[in-house]
Amino acid sequence: MKVLIIDDERLARDELRELLRMSPDVEVVGEAAHSEEARELIARMKPDVLLLDIQMPGPDGFALLAALPPPVPEVIFITAHNRHALQAFRVNALDYLLKPVEPAHLAAALARVRERLTHLRTTQSNKAAPPGKLGDDDTLFIRDGDRCWFVPVKKIRLAECVGNYCRIHFDTHHPLLLSSLDALAAHLDPRHFVCASRSQLLNLAYVARTDLVRENNLTATLTDGTVVRFSRRAARLFREQHRLRQT
Amino acid sequence: MLLRLASALRAFAPSFVLAVAVLLFSKAGVWLSLSHASVVSPLWPASGVAVAALLRFGPRLAPGVWIGTLASNVIAGDPWPFLALGPVGNMLEALAAWWLLTRVWPVNPSFERARDVLRFFVGGVALPPLISAALGITGLTLGGVLPADRFLYSATLYWVANAAGILMIAPALLTVVGPDRMLAIRKLAFLPFTALTLAVVVGFSHEYTLGIGGWPLAYLPFPFVVWIAFVQGVRGAALANLLVSLASTLATIFDCGPFAAPNTLHSLALLVTYNTLTAATALLLASVRAELTASEARTRNALAREAEWNALRAQVQPHFLFNALNTLRRLIQADPAGGRDFTTRLAAFLRSSMQASEAATVPLSDEFAAVDNYLALEQFRFEGRLRPRLSLAPEAAQVLLPPLVLQTLVENAVKHGIARRVDGGELTVTAITADGVCLVRVINPVAPDSAAPAETSDGLGLRNARERLRLACGERATLRLYPKPSGCTTAEISIPLP
């Protein structure tokens, strides 16, 4: 398990390195004192796990994650804030440890990460993803205003183009992702995500039914009731792939 | 030319309005004297109007007093020596009251402190009419209206009349009239004033005997005056005073009530004593009550601020403390000697934070020592990124300020300046004295993505520090932030030197 330590205090990094020595399967592949350094190391070392201090000079921990190309590595946040202060960050699925870090808590957090990593590597769907594409269990990190989400790819129902950005629909949330729809589509498995038009990308797993009214006039109704209208070109492609017949 | 005339007119307009008011109230005073077989009136309300006007709008209205009085005297056909001296006397009386109550014993004309009321009695009511009495009676004597051997007697009457006018009218005008006060009159309770009016009618409406069969009914209004003073504040008390004094004076002039004795001087003495007692009771009670309320509010504010401060301290500390413990954990293994030093400093920091609320002020040298200690702790965390520079001028060392105000500024400088810069920066803390003030400055380079701290809890901390500074060091002590020198933020405390 390759770990990258990101904290602006040298003594805090040393302390984490010392604590990690107790886990024989952990390899510390680097240390970063700020986000710039961290981005470069992540690109080069491809760590499985980030031990990440939220507060850093320059872009903070969340800004770093939002700027990384997907999928985002596993993250364990390390902070001196108390639980109450952490709620102010409004992040779902926040795995965090409080400073000073208790060895037992670190071991438990590493165990959870290990389990998820194993799951990711062994799951059929994830293994089946074409090279360079995200698997169902891979995760996007989205930051919109003061809220952040870790979103497994399989939870995305629909992505819509909004200017240069795109809006992601999952669960009950609809945050804005600061990247173009084309850029997002490039990362997604085309067997699961299809373009309904230039501005809409939908996950087939959430299509409740499709209606072909006339030749190439195709609509898809999603599980949440959203109706997506296909463009003529997209409808033709879709019919060819899925052998739909006119009803 | 026309413009200049218009602006001159505009400048003169307030004086003119005052002159008209003085004229009308002088006519009322003259009318009071006509009903009574005396040359001088027992009550001169115009004096009260003049004093109130000058106290509220300043001495530039003084000519209005002179013109109004002169007009009234001309209409009454007074002899020329009185025309020369009387109006000047009334103007000087109002000016004297203004000077005494703004320059010698300054009062706040809202009369919400007992001190203001007492000062008003002396500097507004008792002393200024001495001037107008001396000049006025000199004028009347020279004009042949009064015999020279009755000078002292007449001057006393004149003094009493003007003093009574000021005592009756001025507090009511000063507390009731004004843009923000007109609404407040409607809030006056109906019941106590009705009761007071009834008591006044019962007390003064009957034909002169020494009370009805000797009963001291004139004192019937007193409980109601006290009631109003307690529940209606200074404004109500001033109005009650006006009501009672006016009624008692009118009654006495029309030979009603217990003070209308056959002997004019006797009658006047009774009336003046009564009215002075009423005014003193009403205004003093109300002002003491207002003072108590204000001091309660101040105490409540101070307690609330203290609680807010404690809450802030409690909220800021954990983040610092847990980071410090994290550092300590590392030092124990990697640098035991450093760890020992760190522990001692941490203990000193905690001790100074915990004891801070025990003292109202501490010398700057103590605060510098605490800040030095705090920065040494933070240097363990930030290492080369935090470069502190402290300089305390010897003459500033003993300047007193509330504890932890400087500490708050330095903590903010670390948190918003140093900690958010990849390469940190220099944090400068200086204290100097110059031009009668002590200037303490905390200067840090700004973070690249700096947001104004005004909206955050640190903004609250700043506001609180500012308030504590003001409470401990007076209104002239200030705390301000400014974006200088370029690329830096400076927090500057300014404390006037004693």
End-to-end distance of chain A: 53 Å
Mean pLDDT of chain B: 82
- Largest sheet of chain B at a glance? 5 strands, mixed
The portion of residues forming beta strands of chain A comes to 25-35%
Q: Uncertain spans of chain B, ≥5 residues at pLDDT below 50?
A: none
What percentage of amino acids of chain B are in beta strands?
Answer: 5-15%
Enumerate the spans of chain A where pLDDT stays under 50 for 5 or more consecutive residues.
none
Most residues in contact, chain pair and counts: A-B, 23 and 27 residues
Helix content of chain A: 25-40%
Overall geometry of chain A: elongated
How many DSSP helices of chain A? 8
Measured between the Cα atoms of the first and last residue of chain B, the distance is: 52 Å
What pattern of helices and strands is seen along the backbone of chain B? HHHHHHHHHHHHEHEEHEEHEE
Oligomer: heterodimer
Number of strands of chain B: 7
Strand order of the largest sheet of chain B: 2-4-5-7-6
Average pLDDT of chain A: 87
Shape by Cα distribution of chain B: elongated
Task: Give helix % range of chain B.
Answer: 55-70%
Can you give a write-up of this model?
- The complex is a heterodimer of chains A (247) and B (498).
- Helices cover 31% and strands 30% of the residues of chain A.
- In chain A, strand 1, helix 1 (10-20) and strand 2 form a beta-alpha-beta unit.
- The relative contact order of chain A is 0.09.
- The mean pLDDT of chain A is 87.
- Chain A is elongated and about 70 Å long.
- With 247 residues, chain A is α/β, with parallel strands linked by helices.
- Chain B is of the alpha+beta class and 498 residues long.
- In chain B, strands 2-4-5-7-6 form a five-stranded mixed sheet, covered by helices on one side.
- Chain B starts with a helix and ends with a strand.
- The chains are: A alpha/beta (247), B alpha+beta (498).
- Chains A and B meet through helix 1 of A and helix 11 and helix 13 of B.
